[in-house]
Amino acid sequence: MKKFKSDYYSMAQSDYCCYLSDITVADKVEHRGIGKELIRLASRQLSDKCQLILLLSPSANCYYPKLGFIKREDAWVLSESEM
Q: What is the model's pTM?
């Protein structure tokens, strides 16, 4: 069995939402559904009422709408330099 580099980070807050971030798949194994499967595995662990919120880099903006994610304009991020 071959090993492929893939990873993600998630944090859930009760049954309201789960933040999913830093989904990475090694370049040599991209386009094989690995990232999609990571998202599916993460979402299966949540309750039906829990929203999955994806935090991503601008370079991935064209990928996630293909998986059904909807871009929202109602979020704010405080940069580390402002904390």
A: 0.66
